[in-house]
Structures are given as structure tokens and as C-alpha cells.
Amino acid sequence: xxxxxxxxxxxxxxxxxxxLFSRSRSAxxxxxxxxxxxxxxxxxxxxxxxxxxxxxxxxxxxHEPTLNAIFELAVKNKWTVxxxxxxxxxxxxxxxxxxxxxxNDKQYLGRFESALSNEFETRVKISGNKKKGYVKxxxxxxxxxxxxxxxxxxx
Length: 155
Prior knowledge:
Layout: H1 2-10, H2 14-20, H3 25-33, H4 39-46, H5 52-58, H6 64-77, H7 81-120, E1 124-128, E2 133-137, H8 142-151
Antiparallel strand pairs: 1-2
Helix pairs in contact: 2-3, 5-7
């Protein structure tokens, strides 16, 4: 917090602070970055319950509820810095797999949209996934609606 005060009140650069305290500029910058963490984590660092190294591993998580949950798990299970990093990496990989799955679902449904659009000669919108969702068939007039009903086997 002292570094932050020097930056804000005296307009010192990270480089100047580093020179004053015989530390590297990156060490000063990293210390200042820790101040962006939730107050609960900062207090744990101040109290000596959580190291700066552990906290630095959390800096890559931007979603605060996830950040707090990982912090709680790390403290409860006494994780090492590497264990925190590994856990975060695992979350990211799961997230990437889910994004890919969602893309595949969209491609899968998109093919059916095209096929139905060609079959009914109208615009079709499918929303949902492979398990559940809905299909919208669009029409522009009473005649279009009647034609669509005929194609569906209703008169």
C-alpha cells in the first residue's frame, strides 16, 4: 500500500520506487498489481495467511466470484502456488471445451436450419441445443402462412 501511496501522492514511477527500495521494477509493479485483488485476499496477505506468490497466481482470474472461490479452496486445502496455477489452468481448459461444444452445437443446428429453410421455402430459426430448443418458421403473408400449413400437412 505504501508503493501505491508513493505513486498517487508523489507521482513516482515504478522505476523510481524500485530504485528507492533497491528492488526490481517488476517486483514493485507486481506488488502494486496485488492491490487490484479483493480486500479479503489483501488482508490475508497482510496477516501472513496467504503469500504474495499465491496471490499473484490469482491475478489471472478476472471473474471475482470465481477468484474468491479459488482463494477459499486454496486456503482451506493449503494449496501451493503450483496447485493454484494448475487449478486455474484446468478451469480454462474446461471453459475452452465448452466454447468448442457450443460452436459445434451451433454448426449442427445451422445445418438443420438450412435444410428446413430449403424444404419449407421460408426463413427458419432454430434455438437451443441437441437436447432441447425450439424451431421458428417465418411467413410474410396470409398466403405464406397457408402454404406453410400445407407443407406441414395441415390445411
